[in-house]
Amino acid sequence: MPSKLTPEELKQELLKAYPAKVARKREKQIIINKHKDPSANGLPTTNEVLANARTIPGILSMRGCAYAGCKGVVLGPTRDILHIVHGPIGCSYYAWLTRRNQTRPVSDEDPNFMTYCFSTDMQEEDIIYGGEKKLKKAIDEAIAIFKPKALDIFSTCPVGLIGDDVHAVAREMEAKYPDVNIFGFSCEGYKGVSQSAGHHIANNKVFTDVLGLGDLKKPGKYRVNLLGEYNIGGDAFELERVFEKCGITLQATFSGNSTYEEFTSAHNVDLNLVMCHRSINYMADMMETKYGIPWFKVNFIGAESSAKSLRKIGQYYGDQELIDRIEAVIAEEMPAIEAARATHRPSLEGKTAVLFVGGSRAHHYQDLFHELGMETISAGYEFAHRDDYEGRHVLSSIKVDADSRNIEEIEVHPDAELYKERVTPERKAELLAMGIEMNGYEGMMPEMKEGALIIDDLNHHEAEVLIEKVKPAIFGAGVKEKYVIQKSGVPLKQLHSYDYSGPYAGFKGAINFYAEIDRLVNASCWGLVKAPWQSSPELSASYAYVG
Amino acid sequence: MSTKTKLITEPGREVTQDACRVCAPLGACLAFKGVEGAVTLLHGSQGCATYIRRYLISHFREPIDVASSSFTEETAVFGGKANLLAGLDNISRQYTPQLIGVATTCLSETIGDDVAAVLRDRVPADPEEKCKVLNVSTPSYSGSHADGFYRAVRSLVSALTEETSEVFTQRLNVFPGMATPADIRWLKSLFKAWGLEAVVLPDYSDTLDGGLWDTYQRIPSGGTSLAAIRGMGGAECSLEFGHALNPADSAAVWLEECRGVKRLLLGAPVGVAASDLFFHRLQALTGRDFPADLSAERGRLIDAYADGHKYVSGKRAAVYGDADLVATLALFLLEIGVTPVVCAAGGPVSAFREVMKGLVPDFEERGMEVLSDVDFDHIEQATARVGVDFMIGSSKGYKAAKRLGVPLVRVGFPIHDRFGAARQRLMGYDGTQRLFDELVNTLLSHTQEATGLGYSYM
Ligand code: SF4
Ligand code: SF4
């Protein structure tokens, strides 16, 4: 039964088991959503959330490390950059992309290194005497066999500590192999507080060492990049289909179904579309400064949101031909959407969801649930920052702490030759009047109802309390949460890897998702499950060392 | 997916391409899951804990808690003591565990954090305390997940087992190694039926293959109790399954040396011969007869071997994974008439060839290649060179099997592309029976698919 607790009572339930110091911190990360005056200029329009803060030792967080954000998220989905992980074997093995992100080489000759997992597999002597020699040899071997155009090196925790300089190695090896672009990432797992640090590190390096090196211009009148789309479950394939139908050219996607060459030529566009704001906003900002390419936020999760995002592109160009074509595409796609909704909505309407995932998905997926008549009553990100919750207008008020200061902010200047202003300030104002905010993101909280519980960096303990007290119809999170949630009779939909199904983006994706949620929420097995809850006793810390 | 095979032929290469082993702390997490009321804390950055949880959870399809001391850059530079203590405190408040197993990661080992010293200094060694804390050193740059597993089991025994002068006959310690939950459950019921008081360590048969919770459980119930571990010194003997495990990492060796409990080392009872040996040992220990239903199971298995021989006899296989499992499966394969022409241990197991030579003295004449410390590229190369009818091992061999066009029988860790890994049964006559059935069916299905003729009678 849905909880009768007020949001405040629920919050107190979540905090109950913590020692005072931990409770004080978590209290700032568990927020009851409240809308303030939307006209407040530059001021938060919602309550403030403590985000991008350190995870407390001993609290079972969903978060991964900087290396995971750099290798696994941003660079991993690019098929023809050969990735070498410098470190002991585990880190490399765990980030082996064996299903989550998909890619589609254009021919048999088109290289695809994604299913491989290369590691220097450091041994004790490498830790003691340094691993640079081994790394160089590994690069020699990888180049001899695979002949990649580009090769990158990812540092795991021990690397930084033993003083291996992956950048020096990259430079040296690049001098040896002038035809191969070789670059390294200092993405040791202890940097920052989550994957987020790794996204930033990845953005920086791709920007300085890859972007602008090529001059590919894919044919078409309207050329754009899609940033922060990682082709989970084939999402990018569906978006490619829709874009093509609309006559919009996707120059580069960062980084679902992408190639090195597309990255090198990503500056040859009129517009950047930002999907996952958290992982890639740095790139969008840097490209604007250097090349004058403006960006705006899009969301292709949900049929309505997809239509809205496409219309924004049409309005940006202001070209009637494009606007008409987009409308025609939407009109063509919508009947199937309506039909699917008519099938699935009746058995889902009025039910609730909670979403704890990633740095944008907890926001994006609310639209899909909304289309099914389901409300998201509690949500939070794993590694987002305040701007992803409250909107970018709070950026200037975010204090830079020690963990963020460790991550390089690179200085970018307009490129003497390539900078070109795409939209004048006047045009920006016009667009804003049409509801298109350039460089803007309003965040998740303004779109959620008042009273919804926002929980940043939800942990295992809180997930358990939540499920016990709230009993949503579905829980959207990752595999780490999956089985503990399902043990209590609530289905969990994996929104990182989609349980290896999908796509869910775009129009066809929405149809898939409606059917999927119906199938999961109304699965016959839940009829056999009952979970009488009882509260767990609270006890104090006490332990003894025994060896 | 590009299907081109690109094999590295150069010997002694440095780059590891598609590893066939995971890292040591994962093994420790698995071992601690088999102790009642235990939680693992990985000392290092949280990425390791998150990855390891993900890998274990995807295999067992059960909730698995692994906490981390969540290093930041500062911690990495100045040491992890404060984080470790804060971590212990927070776990103990949230979970009220009976035991916290602290396992190190590459990071804390690299900076040289002395976990034992921190714990000794700061945590009172009060036997009345409700929560015990122990530590195990598991840097991944030496050894694999299997080593981490054995070390953690040994640390449990060496930290907890009390000295005793009493010896209880009919009491047995059993160290099954990285067995499946279903096999552990089978072992327990077998001992019970035989009237033996056996302590199986670890026992994750409930914690990693549990039912739905009718009451909420902060730490899933089940696991070897601390009291049982404390009493292991009073057993008549310790049965340890394994072929290749390092004596320095063996819990049974420790018990023999420090508590005077005789160690009996046996291969895991998979196959008729290995099961026979196991049951005869039990018979000798208890002085009690083989239960009649076991004889019937044995009969059925041999009958199945006879019925299935036309599908398997004379075939060739590549077996890969953890050294102990590889040795166990190689013996089983030989028993059913299959030559394991490639026997590959993914971890750095020093004397693996010698171990295999001890088990199969004429392995060279039989054309078996025995490899250790190899990755999937090495395995694929060796397999391509000699040619096989099927591969047997974890899910990670799928890519190689697919490229080589041979079927894959999934056994071991990790199994991420099939359902029911926790319930896989290999041990005893009936466990072997299931493995044999699956193997034959895999070959049949492959033949059926390959002919494309639509036969439904094989
Ligand atoms: S650092 Fe070591 S312990 Fe952590 S994931 Fe990597 S190999 Fe495993
Ligand atoms: S060692 Fe560091 S880089 Fe590797 S998984 Fe652990 S936290 Fe991440």
Quick summary:
The complex is a heterodimer of chains A (547) and B (458). Chain A has helices spanning 7-15, 20-29, 66-75, 89-94, 124-129, 132-146, 157-162, 166-176, 195-209, 235-246, 260-264, 277-291, 303-317, 320-344, 361-371, 386-390, 402-405, 425-433, 460-470, 479-486, 506-521; strands at residues 30-32, 81-86, 118-119, 150-155, 181-185, 222-229, 248-255, 271-274, 295-297, 352-356, 375-380, 453-455, 474-477, 492-494, 543-545. With 547 residues, chain A is of the alpha/beta class.
Task: Find the count of extended strands of chain A (DSSP E, 2+ residues).
Answer: 15
The CA-CA distance between the termini of chain A, in Å, is 46 Å
- The assigned structural class of chain A equals alpha/beta
**Number of discrete domains of chain B:** 3
Strand content of chain A: 5-15%
What's the CATH first level of the largest domain in chain A?
A: Alpha Beta
The Rg value of chain A, from CA coordinates, equals 24 Å
Oligomeric organization of the protein chains: heterodimer
Low-pLDDT stretches of chain B: 1-10
Small-molecule binders? iron/sulfur cluster
Word description of this protein:
The complex is a heterodimer of chains A (547) and B (458). Chain A is built from 21 helices and 15 strands. Chain A is an alpha/beta fold and 547 residues long. Chain A folds into 3 domains: 165 residues, Rossmann fold (3-Layer(aba) Sandwich), CATH 3.40.50.1980; 144 residues, 3-Layer(aba) Sandwich (Rossmann fold); 164 residues, Nitrogenase molybdenum iron protein domain (Rossmann fold, 3-Layer(aba) Sandwich), CATH 3.40.50.1980. In chain A, strands 1-12-11-10-13-14 form a 6-stranded mixed β-sheet, sandwiched between helices. Chain A has a 4-stranded parallel β-sheet with strand order 3-2-4-5, with helices on both faces. In chain A, strands 7-6-8-9 form a 4-stranded parallel β-sheet, with helices on both faces. The longest helix of chain A is centred in the middle third of the chain and has 25 residues. About 2% of the residues of chain A have low confidence. By secondary structure, chain B is α/β, with parallel strands linked by helices. Chain B has 3 domains: 153 residues, 3-Layer(aba) Sandwich (Rossmann fold); 119 residues, Rossmann fold, CATH 3.40.50.1980; 150 residues, 3-Layer(aba) Sandwich (Rossmann fold), CATH 3.40.50.1980. A 5-stranded parallel β-sheet of chain B has the order 12-11-10-13-14, sandwiched between helices. Chain B has a 4-stranded parallel β-sheet with strand order 3-2-4-5, sandwiched between helices. The radius of gyration of chain B is 22 Å and the shape is globular. Chain B starts with 15 loop residues before the first strand and ends in a 7-residue tail after the last helix. At the A-B interface, helix 3, helix 4, strand 3, helix 5 and helix 6 of A face strand 1, helix 1, helix 2, strand 3 and helix 3 of B. Bound molecules: iron/sulfur cluster (SF4) (2 copies). One iron/sulfur cluster sits at the interface of chains B and A.
